[in-house]
Structures are given as C-alpha cells and as structure tokens.
C-alpha cells in the first residue's frame, strides 16, 4: 500500500476542519507505511497523539475505509515519533563558539544557567550581591537582573545610554524579579472556552513539562485574545515551581532593540550569552521580526541553542507562522517543530464567563443579564470587553447606582453609538462584496446563483449578529426581501458553519475585519 490513502485523507480533513485544527493536529502527523502494510501516523509528542486518538481517529478510520472501497482498509497505527525516527528537520548544531554545554537532564525548570564554553562567570544571573564593577546590559536591565562582565569596557560619549555601572536596577511594580512577568496573568484567572481550549491545554502542558516535547510552543491569534496572558501564565507557573528559574519574557521589539544596541556597543557576545543562558524564553508578537534579517539571523542561532539545551521557548504571533511575510523559511519551519496552537475570538458564552470572572475579581456584583448585554455588544476581543466592563464599574462607583442592563446601556452609550456607526448594514454589504469580489448591487439584486446568493446570506447573518436591526429591517435592506428570507439565510449560514470549512473561515475572517 502506498501513502495515497493518507494523502486523500489529508485533502478531506483539510476541508472538514478549520485551518487551526488542521494545522495544529493533522499537519504535524508524519505518515509511514509499516513493514506489514499498516499506515503509521507519528505525532510529534504525546499531547498531539492523545488529542488525535481521542478526537480524530474514528474519522480517519472512516475515511480510510471509504477510500479503500472493496479492498481491505489499511490498519491504522498511531504513535509518538521516537527520537532517531527520521525527523523532518533536526535542529542543526549551532556554530562551535556558541555551542551550549551538554544539556543537564532535569525534572524541573530550575536547571543551572548555561554559559558558553570559555565563559566562566562564577555567579548567578540573579545574584545582585557581588563585588566588582558591573554594567547592566539592556536585557537584564528590563528584567531586574544584571551581570558582571569580566572586563568592563569604558563608556564613550555618544554611546547609547546603558545604565551607569553599579546602579541597582529597580524592579517595576507588579513585575516579578528577573522575569518581567506580570503577576496578574495566571492560569487561575484565565477563563477557558471553546475558542482558547487548545492553547490553554498546551500552555498547561508546557508549564508542567518545560523543555519537553512542546518546544517551542507557538501561540497565534488576533489582538487582545489572551496570547500574552497564557504565555505569561506559563512563566509565572515555572517561577512558582522554582523561584530561581531564569524565565525571561519580552516583546519581540525589545529583542530587536537589544540586539541593535549590542551591535552598536560591540557587545553581541554578551547579548548571545544572555539570551542563551535562560531556562525559558518567552517572546511576544514575533511578527515584528518580519523584514529584520539580522535579527532573524541572531534569533535563529538563539533558537537552535535553546532547543539544543532543552530550554523552553514560547512565542506568540498575530498569525500562523507560514503566513508571516518577510520571515525566513528556516525560521517558519522551526516554529512548527514543537506545537502550534491558535486562539480564536471568544464566543458569546465565554465572553459572558470572562465578564463575570473579571467583575468578581474586582469585587463587583454583575448580574448574568448585565454581563450578557455587554457580551452581546462587545464581540471583538477580550481587551475591549475588559475596557467596557471597567467603564461600567467606574460609572457605578461614581454614581452609586447598581449595575443593571439599563445602567450598562447608559454607561456604554457613546461606545455603542460609535460601534453602531462603524458596523452598520451598509458597511457590512460593502465589506462582504469586496471580500467575495462581487458588486454591492449583486447583493441587493434578485440573482439567485450560488456565487451571489451565498455572500448575500453571509452578509445577512453578519447584519443580524453585528447590528441591532430586526429581521424585517435586514430583509428590506437587501433589495426589499422579507423577514423569512433573512431568517432562512441566517439558519443556512449557521448550519454551513458546522459543515463547510470555507464558509466557516469566510465568516470568521469577515467578523474579524468588521469588528477590529
Ligand atoms: N480567556 C481569558 N480569561 C481571562 N482574561 C483574558 C482571557 N483572554 C484574554 N484575557 C485578558 O484580556 C486582556 C488582553 O489579553 P492579552 O494581552 O493576553 O492579549 P494578546 O492576545 O496577547 O493581544 P496582543 O496581540 O494585542 O498582545 C488581558 O488583560 C488578559 O488578561
């Protein structure tokens, strides 16, 4: 048997699943035909294996039987890819001078910092209590730690403003020493829902087993959906297990700025040493690496060294790695070596649950009806949701009135008016027409061909979901149709979202365009 059945399965599964499901669970499976003709699918790690076994195995078997027709279907074997198994792209060894020492086996994230060969600092990165001249390098400066460079170099006028020697770095409020982590981002206060379930589960796995099979963990999704929160929750958890763990969180722009500064100061080796000495490196919004070739080059080597040393990396991005324009292919492929998971905008129930939780955390009583009202109106992302809730709470404190749906409506009046102005039937029609490359007049016409009818139904559904117009008003706005046509359109699109991955993706994209 050749792999053709599996290749056909892939085509079907890609149609049936959302792109994030397919990219996360199916794409990483490596297929082989076993010596006895079994179809062996190798998952990169246990997590993916369990997920695929529980959720997709039955469907894969069904498809295999379907494609085999009258022939016996191949036996399916699911397993974790073993070390030594023909890995698609094993990390190349870093250049000798940057080679990290042999990784020490570890059960906790508290491994000793790893230093380049020949460099013997004789102190911990976290150790403030030492003699000798110090300079604070840009990265440690933000992290609250600093280290001694054996031969401090003189500062020259005009050089970038390094912190003067011996100045103790202040740790910002709410920021964990040495990690730049925000204590308020924890697993406990992260509300799980369908939209973030995979990312949440993966992050918890990493917190339990750093440097394990899910390295790097790559979390992608739109703005304000909780990527930073989850990434930092892992960092906080690692530090909770071991307060000496060197967990470093930073925004990708900071990495770029540090590197530029290090190059200007001729301190690139310090830069390399610093970033390679951590136990866990958490970099946010790596889409900012796009087009920055020198940064990518440096990050590529850091990435390899960390992976080789078994140090955990977590990266976030606003899109799927392969879709980042201006990012080298070798980085794109490396980002997929661990686990790539998506976070989607939260659905209504999750939005309500988040609001109730945030209100509770603020010690405020929020009724379900009021939470529901806000969640129905604010759909774009969690940050916006939090902003709206803060406004309502502040207003309630200020006026001494209790929070009811009417009070919420009043408090958010300006915001909702602005939103209504931004999302109305006219611009839904304009954006849907642009998206499907048809004319607005087609949406309003009597034409019933699929190429026009489907976008029209999508636009009507969006109008129902995003505006306060009634069904008769929506029908009327689409070429004078009646409310039963609008109702049919909405039901049809709801049904298609469960069965047709193209429609599901289109709808999601359009929602994103209209609400962000
Ligand atoms: N599921 C959730 N439960 C609780 N709070 C959440 C959840 N998702 C997001 N938040 C909160 O929403 C706010 C925005 O989240 P976060 O900063 O993690 O978004 P992001 O995806 O990293 O966005 P950006 O790409 O803009 O950086 C934070 O205050 C975070 O705590």
UniProtKB/TrEMBL annotation:
Domain of life: Bacteria
Binding site for ATP: 224, 226-228
Domain AAA+ ATPase intervals: 213-422
Chain segments carrying region Disordered: 84-119
Keywords: ATP-binding, Cytoplasm, DNA replication, DNA-binding, Lipid-binding, Nucleotide-binding
Family label: Belongs to the DnaA family.
Domain notes: Domain I is involved in oligomerization and binding regulators, domain II is flexibile and of varying length in different bacteria, domain III forms the AAA+ region, while domain IV binds dsDNA.
Protein name (database record): Chromosomal replication initiator protein DnaA
Gene encoding the protein: dnaA
